[in-house]
Design a protein that fits this description.
By secondary structure, the chain is α+β, with helices and mostly antiparallel strands. It contains 11 helices and 6 strands. β3 and β4 form a beta hairpin.
Length: 364
């Protein structure tokens, strides 16, 4: 993954309240400008067509009022059901971490297995296995990360209201890698239902000496004849799941970076949001199914069906490729890349799944 997020030190600082207010105002100005353009379009229409469009706009306003009521009721419904989820999550935590034992499991250890008694407590590597089974998260987890993620006891999320957004919490047992017992990742959104990502903030990890997983130390032998006999050491950033807690930041002044850097930053921010929403929407609520592999199989079947539908039109696609010299999929990819970073370079496409509304995050 690119180091762009870490290579913009001063410009990449977290936005202040004043900057956030300016961003929102800029977004409003953009919307007003677009609205003005639509008014100009209306003025070009014949009078009768314009009247019909005005009636359609009135219908749209009525629809928006109904939708606002729907969103309000949906939030209340989500809050109601999140309270029903909580006892289940608590029970899952207790079983996974060996706080309680399930009925029928004996605590009497056979003599030759006495040394393994501690290992048999709860469900070892539960969250590590669940995350590695998800294809998107598996790409983020390196071999070096696995030792530390075995100490992961629980993952929670909650919605935050000021500013709007959501927070992920990762609870760790005491481990030889870092001092933190909880690592958090917070996403601040300008819009909640059709999310526009303002920024993401992660916990600063307090690594134990020599245990940092996001950096590697390179040693170079001194050249022959050099007066300095000591090897030259250099610290370099490396791939790690724990880079997730050091997310890319939006520069205070977009003029400081060129178009290529903007596109790079856009891709990093979208990827970061996708990982966070995957943990929130898939891993946390369905962790057991990911641990057993059932969720991965379900995802695979969904993808397989989509591929089958695409294959039905392959002949037509081949003809288009022969005539135009460019595959339809390539065209789609290009058009998609142009649609990101709307509203001053901070837009994240809205997700199909509604965001649940849990109570405040609380530590087990």
């Amino acid at each position: 993954m690119s180091d762009l997020g870490s290579d913009l030190p001063a410009a990449a600082a977290a936005l202040s309240a004043e900057d956030r207010a300016g961003l929102v105002n800029a977004l409003k100005d953009k919307l007003q400008l677009l609205a003005g353009q639509h008014v100009d379009i209306l003025e070009t229409l014949p009078p009768k067509v314009r009247q019909r469009v005005e009636i359609l706009r009135d219908l749209q306003s009525q629809h928006d009022e109904v939708e606002a009521k729907f969103l309000e009721e949906r939030s209340k419904l989500e809050a109601k059901y999140q309270k029903l989820y909580e006892p289940l999550y608590t029970k899952r935590y207790e079983i996974v971490n060996g706080v309680v034992e399930v009925e029928g499991v004996t605590n009497v250890a056979v003599p030759e297995e006495a040394n393994k008694a501690a290992e048999d407590k709860g469900v070892p590597e539960f969250w590590l296995t669940a995350m590695k089974t998800n294809e998107a998260l598996a790409e983020e987890i390196t071999e070096r990360d696995e030792g530390s993620l075995k100490y992961l006891k629980d993952i929670k999320w909650c919605r935050i209201d000021d500013p709007k957004g959501f927070k992920l919490e990762f609870y760790f047992d005491s481990n030889p890698y870092f001092k933190n017992s909880v690592l958090t990742k917070t996403y601040h959104m300008i819009e909640d239902d059709d999310p526009i990502l303002e920024k993401a903030i992660g916990t600063e990890i307090e690594w134990h000496p020599g245990k940092c997983l996001t950096q590697k130390i390179l040693k170079k032998k001194p050249s022959k004849g050099s007066k300095n006999a000591k090897p030259i050491t250099k610290t370099e950033k490396c791939e790690s799941f724990f880079n997730f807690f050091n997310p890319p930041q939006v520069p205070e002044d977009d003029d400081d970076i060129d178009d290529d850097a903007v596109e790079e930053l856009e891709n990093l921010m979208e990827h970061d949001y996708d990982i966070g929403s995957t943990i929130r929407d898939k891993i946390i609520p369905h962790a057991v199914s990911w641990f057993t592999g059932e969720a991965a199989q379900s995802d695979f079947e969904d993808i397989d069906e989509d591929d089958y539908e695409d294959e039905e039109g392959d002949d037509d696609d081949d003809e288009d490729e022969d005539e135009d010299g460019e595959d339809e999929e390539e065209k789609k990819g290009k058009s998609k890349s142009k649609s990101k970073l709307q509203s001053g370079g901070r837009a994240i496409p809205g997700k199909d799944q509604p965001m649940e509304r849990p109570p405040e995050c609380k530590q087990q």
